[in-house]
């Protein structure tokens, strides 16, 4: 990863994108398991502004992946409403892209073929596709690896390739399901920085599920904290800091502690260790 | 490169030792020469059979049957395996029968097929087709069923048109297991064909061996053993090379 290109500080009013407004209203989802209904999502209400980056954190099994699958249109069996720019979602569409935790690149296709696959059904004229694929490979800093097969890429590179594939159709809404979950700590930090840079360039609406609270705060304009059984929104945290952000910002640290306390349950006074000889903490 | 040469030489060692031992055993005179023909004599016989065109003619007949039998059996196996994997109804109807029938040794079908079809070309091609059918159908079924759901979801997300889905995703995803099935089917088909020709035929490499046995020409029998072994080996290797070439993306 080379030095970051110059990033224009975000000027909220002027370059806010016109499309990419997502609204979820009274969204509920249940699975039938052995004849019994298992409620997985219950009464989710959320409105995401065009171009906003929203992170979602929550215990595993609280329905985060299910929520993204509903929004991307892979599962249309739900109650309530999902609307993107006012239009009800009834299935998959090229204006919504998704990156799964496992990169899901096809092992028999080169990087450029994998990314080009996303354009097969797009309205972009054939003769422009190669150029667009090339640009997106450059966007995720993988220039030079166009002809590489997935097994020749590292985990971080493969995940960036998957991000390029999701972006190549220029979706108004990008969904990320723990996209960096399988990466080691150092690679994660790199790809997070990349992701921030890419998002600032593309300005599509992003909904990112993560189990890493710091990652959620570093990238998100808002962080949705979910509660399990059934999945609900427990709290929405505004992260009122301009992008690009400084990881060491005290605001991020304070919010991280708050969210972690929220996720792990409020501390029980009985369990607090007291040091009588010391000043109160 | 030199490692490959060494590996090749190493693999050649046991067969050479075997032929050497055979040559020594036959030259001791301990065994009657009609029973234990020397490798040199067998080599001479093979050369003679090649020269007078007999071997070529028998081999041509056998390979003709293999080509048609395997072609028909493999295509049927591909179609059957795909249908079994994709259709619930088809699976409910045919899966138990298929699983039971594939346990029957192919050679056990021969008496029944002889009764039905006689011993003409139709019979031999059918036996070969049946032998090729089962491994190909099984591998195709497993291959199509084994396509990860996640890949199909990617295609749904990008709304990949069906022809592209078929050509770019479904077929490549099933190629490795299907090629393995085809290779297995091809070598099985060859084995069964030679066996069927031994039992009932007017020509072909198996029949050449059977004639040799009846005329007490052990050299001809052994020539047939060697040639059919080499052909089977070559068929297996040929498909393996093809497999490696077309699934190169698998090797890390
Ligand atoms: N296809 C399915 N059928 C039945 N239950 C499912 C299915 N997919 C997910 N679930 C259940 O829904 C719950 C939420 O799953 P998921 O959305 O994957 O959670 P998360 O991504 O937050 O870890 C889990 O209890 C899981 O077992
Ligand atoms: Mg999940």
From TrEMBL, chain A:
Similarity annotation: Belongs to the ABC transporter superfamily.
SMART domains: AAA (SM00382)
Protein name as annotated: ABC transporter ATP-binding protein
UniProt key word Cell cycle: no
Species per Swiss-Prot/TrEMBL record: Sphingomonas colocasiae
InterPro entries, alphabetized: AAA+_ATPase (IPR003593), ABC_transporter-like_ATP-bd (IPR003439), ABC_transporter-like_CS (IPR017871), ABC_transporter_ATP-bind (IPR050166), P-loop_NTPase (IPR027417)
Domain ABC transporter as annotated: residue spans: 22-255
Alphabetical UniProt keywords: ATP-binding, Nucleotide-binding, Transport
Ranges in a coiled coil: none
Gene Ontology MF terms: ATP binding
From TrEMBL, chain B:
Listed transmembrane segments: 66-90, 102-119, 125-144, 165-186, 215-235
Annotated ranges, domain ABC transmembrane type-1: 59-239
Membrane topology annotation: Multi-pass membrane protein
Localization annotation: Cell membrane
Superkingdom of origin: Bacteria
Keyword annotations: Cell membrane, Membrane, Transmembrane, Transmembrane helix, Transport
Entry similarity comment: Belongs to the binding-protein-dependent transport system permease family.
Identification of the protein by name: ABC transporter permease
Native source organism of the sequence: Sphingomonas colocasiae
């Amino acid at each position: 990863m080379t030095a970051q290109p110059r990033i224009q500080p975000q000027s909220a009013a002027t370059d806010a994108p016109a499309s990419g407004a997502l609204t979820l209203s009274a969204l509920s989802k249940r699975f039938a398991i052995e004849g019994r209904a298992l409620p997985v999502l219950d009464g989710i209400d959320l409105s995401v502004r065009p171009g906003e980056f929203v992170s979602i954190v929550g215990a595993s099994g609280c329905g985060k992946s299910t929520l993204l699958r509903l929004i991307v249109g892979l599962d249309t069996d739900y109650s309530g409403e999902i609307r993107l720019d006012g239009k009800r979602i009834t299935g998959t569409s090229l204006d919504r892209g998704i990156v799964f935790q496992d990169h899901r690149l096809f092992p028999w296709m080169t990087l450029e073929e994998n990314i080009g696959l996303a354009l097969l059904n797009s309205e972009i004229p054939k003769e422009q596709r190669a150029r667009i694929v090339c640009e997106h490979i450059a966007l995720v800093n993988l220039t030079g690896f166009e002809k590489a097969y997935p097994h020749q890429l590292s985990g971080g590179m493969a995940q960036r390739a998957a991000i390029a594939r999701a972006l190549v159709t220029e979706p108004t809404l990008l969904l990320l399901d723990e996209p960096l979950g399988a990466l080691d700590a150092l690679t994660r930090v790199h790809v997070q920085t990349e992701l921030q840079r890419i998002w600032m360039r593309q300005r599509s609406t992003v909904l990112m599920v993560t189990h890493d609270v710091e990652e959620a705060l570093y990238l998100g304009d808002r962080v949705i904290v979910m509660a399990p059984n059934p999945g609900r929104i427990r709290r929405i945290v505004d992260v009122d800091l301009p992008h690009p952000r400084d990881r060491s910002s005290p605001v991020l640290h304070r919010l991280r502690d708050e969210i972690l306390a929220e996720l792990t349950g409020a501390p029980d006074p009985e369990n607090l260790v007291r040091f009588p000889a010391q000043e109160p903490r | 490169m030199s490692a490959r040469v060494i590996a090749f030489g190493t693999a050649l060692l046991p067969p050479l030792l075997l032929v050497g031992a055979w040559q020594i055993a036959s030259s001791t005179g301990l065994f009657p020469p009609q029973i234990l023909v020397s490798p040199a004599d067998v080599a001479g016989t093979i050369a003679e059979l090649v020269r007078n065109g007999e071997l070529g003619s028998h081999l041509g007949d056998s390979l003709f049957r293999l080509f048609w039998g395997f072609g028909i059996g493999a295509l049927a196996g591909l179609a059957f395996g795909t249908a079994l994997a994709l259709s619930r109804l088809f699976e409910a109807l045919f899966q138990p029968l298929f699983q039971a029938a594939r346990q029957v040794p192919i050679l056990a079908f021969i008496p029944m097929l002889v009764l039905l079809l006689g011993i003409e070309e139709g019979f031999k091609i059918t036996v070969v087709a049946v032998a090729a059918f089962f491994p190909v159908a099984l591998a195709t079924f497993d291959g199509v069923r084994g396509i990860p759901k996640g890949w199909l979801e990617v295609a749904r997300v990008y709304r990949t048109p069906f022809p592209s889905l078929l050509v770019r995703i479904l077929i490549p995803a099933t190629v490795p297991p299907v090629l393995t099935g085809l290779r297995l089917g091809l070598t099985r088909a060859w084995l069964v064909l030679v066996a069927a020709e031994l039992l009932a035929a007017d020509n072909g490499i198996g029949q050449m061996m059977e004639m040799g046995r009846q005329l007490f020409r052990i050299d001809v029998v052994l020539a047939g053993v060697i040639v059919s072994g080499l052909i089977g080996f070559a068929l297996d290797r040929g498909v393996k090379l093809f497999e490696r070439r077309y699934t190169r993306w698998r090797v890390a």
